[in-house]
Design goal:
alpha/beta; single chain; 234 residues; Rossmann fold; 7 strands; 7-stranded mixed sheet; globular
C-alpha cells in the first residue's frame, strides 16, 4: 500500500471520491479520526481539514504512515474498542475495515465510531460491495465479508447514525470483477500488483465520469459501497 498509494489509480480515485462525499460534512479546524488508517493511502488527505489522528492495529502500517504523512498523530488501536473518550472527534473516516475478519460485529464497530464522534459529527464508511463476490484480493486482505449498500446502511442506522449519503461506487467494475473472481477461484493475490495505471488511464477516466454522475445521483450498487452518517445532535 505504501509503495503504490501515490501511483495506483484506485487509491487516487478513492481519495477523490471520499473528498467528494465527506468534505461537505466537515466544518474545518476540528479533530478528525482515520480509523483503520493503514499507511494513509485513503485518509491522509484529512490533514488539510483539521487535526488528524490516524489509528490502526498494524504498527508497521503506522510507521509507514508517519514516514509519508508526518503531520498526523498516530495511535495503535482496535476499531472494536477505540481508546478515545466519548464525543472526542468532529468526524471519523473508516475505509475497508468492517469487512475484515477481525471485526466480529460491524454494527458494534460502527457504534464505536459513533461513540467517539461528537453530536452533529459525521462518520464516513467505505467497504467492498457485492455481497456474494469473493475474489483472490479478498483472500490476501483477510476479507471476511462484503456488503450490499443496504447492509452498510443498516449497520450505520443500527449504530444510531442518521444517513446523509449512501451510494455505490466503481459500478463499472462489477462485471469484470465477477469474471475475474471465476478465473481466480482458489487463488490468493492482490489487485495492487496488477494494472497500477488502470489500463493506461481508462479506469481512472471511468471513475472520474462516475464521480461526476455521483454529484447528481446515488448509485444502488458498486464494487465499493459508501455511507456518510450523522450522529444526532444532543
Amino acid at each position: 500500500m505504501a509503495a503504490v498509494e501515490q501511483t495506483h489509480w484506485w487509491y487516487a480515485s478513492t481519495r477523490q471520491l471520499l473528498q467528494q462525499i465527506l468534505t461537505p460534512a466537515l466544518h474545518g479546524g476540528g479533530l478528525l479520526l482515520d480509523a483503520g488508517a493503514g499507511t494513509g493511502a485513503t485518509g491522509a488527505w484529512l490533514e488539510d481539514h483539521g487535526t488528524l489522528v490516524a489509528g490502526d492495529f498494524e504498527e508497521q502500517a503506522l510507521r509507514l504512515y508517519g514516514e509519508a504523512h508526518p503531520k498526523s498523530e498516530r495511535v495503535v488501536l482496535d476499531v472494536n474498542r477505540l481508546p478515545f473518550a466519548d464525543d472526542a472527534f468532529d468526524a471519523a473516516l473508516c475505509v475497508t475495515v468492517l469487512c475484515h475478519q477481525s471485526i466480529p460485529d460491524p454494527t458494534a464497530a460502527v457504534a464505536e465510531l459513533a461513540r467517539v464522534v461528537r453530536p452533529g459529527g459525521a462518520v464516513c464508511l467505505l467497504e467492498p460491495g457485492v455481497r456474494r463476490l469473493r475474489r483472490a484480493h479478498d483472500r490476501v486482505t483477510h476479507t471476511g465479508r462484503r456488503f450490499s449498500l443496504g447492509d452498510l446502511r443498516r449497520h450505520a442506522i443500527g449504530a444510531g447514525l442518521e444517513i446523509e449519503r449512501a451510494t455505490g461506487a466503481y459500478s463499472f467494475l462489477v462485471p469484470p470483477a465477477a469474471v475475474k473472481a471465476v478465473v481466480e477461484r482458489g487463488r490468493t493475490s492482490s489487485d495492487l500488483d496488477v494494472q497500477p495505471g488502470g489500463l493506461g488511464g481508462l479506469l481512472g477516466a471511468a471513475a472520474r465520469a462516475e464521480r461526476a454522475l455521483l454529484r447528481r445521483v446515488s448509485l444502488p450498487f458498486g464494487l465499493s459501497v459508501a455511507v456518510v452518517g450523522r450522529k444526532p445532535a444532543a
